[in-house]
Amino acid sequence: MLRFLKQSSSSFPEPKVFSSKKAGGLKNLIFWISAISISCETFRCEIGDAEMADPWERRKSAFLERIKRDREIGYLDPGIEETLDLINSREKSYTTSSCSGRISAVDSEFPWKRDDEHPIFKKHAPITEEELEDFLKVEPKDIIWLIVSGPILHICCRDIEEAREMLRVARQAGFKHSGIMSISEDCFMVELISGTQLFLPLKSRTKLFIEAGSMNDILFLVNESLSEGRNRLKRLNEALRA
């Protein structure tokens, strides 16, 4: 006599007792063994990737889900979606943070003193003359800085070979200041930086650093710097597709 133990999954067949001596018993036995095998496979699938996959895959799934939510609510930076899709489609890479490049204005003694800065403005698109004039109307605590930041991405690579390949592709596209930030057991954290940056002091409490006639020149420099960063992002996309 062969007895099958009852399974905890509701998808498992009810336990039965079979005898190979009964007519047709062998066929029934084969049928139920097949049913048990299929049910076990279904049970393993129902456990889900969160329990079956390794920690690296679970983290990648979590970050991809976050990107999906950001895309749905319009939180992703303009111009970055294709780059994220290309990187995250790779077997051994996923992005943890990204920026497509932006123009910002801050009130700070120096633009790199982030703890002391007071944000005034941020935009992921070219600025206008009216917006620049508005910056000059602000009474600063220290100095009003106009800043252009190029694209930046942080990528978790599963092994050193993938990290090296990502850096090779990025530097080919103009992200010359890229490198490996940190290394853990299963993540080589790669930072891709385009290097397109601009820092312009506009006004202090006692002095205006620009002349009225130079507004158009400043607008050209700022917006062209942002555009150059976007061009390098496009070249990165082309290199990733190659």
Walkthrough of the structure:
By secondary structure, the protein is of the alpha+beta class. It folds into two domains: 12-47; 77-241, SSo0622-like fold (2-Layer Sandwich). The protein has seven helices and ten strands. The protein has helices at residues 25-47, 49-52, 55-72, 81-88, 129-137, 160-172, 215-241; strands at residues 2-3, 17-18, 93-99, 102-108, 118-123, 143-149, 152-157, 179-183, 188-193, 197-204. The strands form three sheets. A four-stranded antiparallel β-sheet has the order 3-7-9-8. The protein has a four-stranded antiparallel β-sheet with strand order 5-4-6-10. Strand 8 and strand 9 (188-193) form a beta hairpin. Helix 4 packs parallel to helix 7 (215-241). It is elongated, with a radius of gyration of 29 Å. The model is unreliable at 1-23 and 29-52 (pLDDT under 50).
Concise account of the structure shown:
42% of the residues lie in helices and 23% in strands. It is of the alpha+beta class. The strands form three sheets. It has a four-stranded antiparallel β-sheet. A four-stranded antiparallel β-sheet has the order 5-4-6-10. Strands 1-2 form a two-stranded antiparallel ribbon.
